Amino acid sequence: MDDNLRELAEKLGLSVRFTDAGLIRKDYEVSEDIIRRIASALGYNAWTSEDVNNSLAEFERRKWSRTLEPIYVVEEGNVEFTAVIPSSRLDAAFDIIAAPENSGPGMFGQLSFRVNDTGERYVLNEVELARIEIRINTTLSFGYYNLSFKVDEDIYYATLAVAPRRCYENAALASGKIWGLNIQLYSLKSEHNWGIGDFTDLAELVKIAARNGANIIGLNPLNVLNHTYPEDASPYSSLSRLFMNPMYIDIENVPEFNPSDREEHLEQIKELRESELIRYTEVYQLKVKLLEEFYKRFKFGKDQNRQTDYQRYCESKGVDLEKMATFQCLYDEKCSFNWGGGWRAWEKDFQDFNSEGMQKYIAAHKDKIEFFKFMQFEAERQFDLAYQTAVECGLRLGFYRDLPVGVSADSTEVWSNPELFIPGVGAGAPPDAFFPAGQKWCLGTFNPFVLKDKCYQPFIKILRANMRSAGALRIDHVMGLMRLYIIPDDGTAGTYLYFNFRDMLNIVALESHLNQCMIVGESIGNVPEGFMDTLRARNVYSLGVLWAERFDAGWGDFRSPQQYPEYAFTSIGTHDMAPLRMWWFGYDIALMRSLDIIDNDEVQAQAYQKREADRWKLLHVLDINGVWPEDNFRKADYLFGEAYPEGIEEAVHRFGARTVSKVFLAQPEDIFHVEKMQNLPGVDRDKHPNWRRKLPVNLEKFEEDIAFIRNIKAIRRER
């Protein structure tokens, strides 16, 4: 690779070489074409040698073109930052004031500080510039500050974010270990819901969990999905991570609901409730039909308190809610019958929220836009009720929410802030031990330079929205705080893009304290060396998954409970992995072969051979830890998976609960002997019904089910 292109890649945070996380780790040299394309997408042309040279010069010029950065993210006790001034003013009179964010008049704080000349110089427009380092001696508590930097009579402004050294720790974990349930909310079946799990089901599950000694409920992402195409059901590919999915609204719990509303739809509700898979389009369209009627009743109703609550909600969400509701209205009008490339195919006026044409559209469609806001208002109200149930039932950690690593490229977030996202690329992952072909997620990716220019506000808003009503937040693919693997939309290979890891992690720590929400990092995949140690030092909990907690990169023995990470949320598997019974029989291997994910019989045979060895290893670790139920010891070796060992799920749950990890989460799929996967990554719904499987047992029957009774008893023996 050309040396100058390599230098540009380094300055932009693009890897020119990386190693994957496959079972047989491979090194990759990134092609010049990929580097040139992504560099240009970041705003630095790199198509020719001259372009590269100009971009290197421009990169350096931008570093020196402003006195202060838009934001400085620092840690308590180590508050220092740099500034750029003409070298002729090194002897100027300096002064610094820091006012806490949202402080009132007179709340300005004069600071004690020290200024050092770093010796760095640069000539811009015939003026020699100097970089100085400023260290604040005054103790600043964590929070956001409006920073004023005075050089003689000139004043410059920036945001100062002071982060605590460690993320928030919930007192519930100080005195021991807890356990809970990890669920996909949509998968809950009940005699009450309308074909998909809803927020009332969640509240009922909270009561069941509390009665059985659980202290946490883990949830799939609850973010709003595509209104026009409900079948786009992946909770990890949302329209906006700032808002909730109205699909989870319990129609019968909306204040404007009348019993007669249900009576005229009884037959359809019964069909949707009894269907094997979730019928997203029918469920959603039925709910929207009734919500539209409820909105009319609300708008012309006499409940002044509810209308006041709605107005307050809209004011608190501000322009972000306006953008999201407008996007849904536009999308429904323009893409209902022809996807046609999504919002990028719209007229130019409609690709810019601030255009004159867009404002005229908003005025002309005010009522429908208000309806979309109403759905958000009601979804959030019902989720808050479920959270209040968790508080009243005494769940010590409450809800454990899930923040996706990205957002759909055809989303409100990208449409309303296109400059914030890198055009023509999407996030994904190179090959690893679980997904040998790698993954192409097609998710929009922040431009790290623009993100900092916006003082990280888009990221901060997303954190706050998902920490709301949560005791803990799972950050999906937490390595994305440091780097993301990005792939050109029309390609299959990509490279890593590095973010300002220190800034991102400090903001996570700061927001965790401001929202009193613990942080958990999902780190299955390609983890940089030393990354997990850095997270642990900042009190970011890890995930311990039975299938991943093994020696020798997945080839060796299972770790014993004492060898699990202590500061971790541990489970048997995840939504992307085979449930226990499916894993035991190797049905996941057969499934992947049938879909050509495993592309030949020889590789399939090797997978079966490895699975046979893995079954032996699992039985062995369960044996030596003495976790089999006393009234149901294993009776055979079950060679080649010829039978399912009775009591194995109890043994595995007791094993998981015995680990030293602070939190253990059981999945209903493992408890109830489910043999099919919730999600098969990298496969579209035409090949596998991702995100559509319901649990085999109704919520009302959980506590009567012998599998539930025995497995919960097994867990509680150890917790």
Strand content: 15-25%
Quaternary structure of the protein: single chain
SS content category: alpha/beta
Indicate the mean pLDDT.
94
Largest sheet: 8 strands, parallel, barrel
Instruction: Report Rg.
Output: 27 Å
* Spatial gap, N to C terminus: 56 Å
Large-scale geometry: globular
Discrete helix count = 21
Flag low-confidence runs: none
Q: What spatial order of strands do you see in the largest sheet?
A: 11-12-15-19-22-23-24-25
Number of strands: 25
Helix content: 25-40%
Describe the secondary-structure layout:
Layout: H1 3-12, E1 17-19, E2 27-29, H2 32-41, H3 49-63, E3 71-75, E4 80-86, E5 94-100, E6 109-110, E7 113-124, E8 127-136, E9 143-151, E10 154-163, E11 178-183, H4 199-211, E12 216-219, E13 223-224, E14 240-244, H5 259-263, H6 266-274, H7 280-299, H8 304-335, H9 356-364, H10 366-392, E15 398-403, E16 407-408, H11 412-416, E17 425-429, E18 439-444, H12 448-453, H13 457-467, E19 472-475, E20 483-488, E21 495-498, H14 501-514, E22 518-521, H15 531-537, E23 541-545, E24 568-571, H16 580-585, H17 587-594, H18 601-624, H19 648-658, E25 663-666, H20 668-671, H21 706-718
Parallel strand pairs: 3-10, 11-12, 11-25, 12-15, 15-19, 19-22, 22-23, 23-24, 24-25
Antiparallel strand pairs: 1-2, 4-8, 5-6, 5-9, 7-8, 9-10, 13-14, 16-18, 17-18, 17-20, 20-21
What are the defining features of this structure?
alpha/beta; 21 helices; eight-stranded parallel beta barrel; 719 residues
Please, could you describe this protein's structure?
This protein is of the alpha/beta class and 719 residues long. Helix content is 36%, strand content 19%. It contains 21 helices and 25 strands. The protein has an eight-stranded parallel beta barrel, surrounded by five helices. It has a five-stranded mixed β-sheet with strand order 3-10-9-5-6. β7 (113-124) and β8 (127-136) form a beta hairpin. α8 packs across α10, α13 (457-467) packs parallel to α14 and α19 (648-658) runs parallel beside α21 (706-718). The radius of gyration is 27 Å and the shape is globular. The termini are far apart. The mean pLDDT is 94.
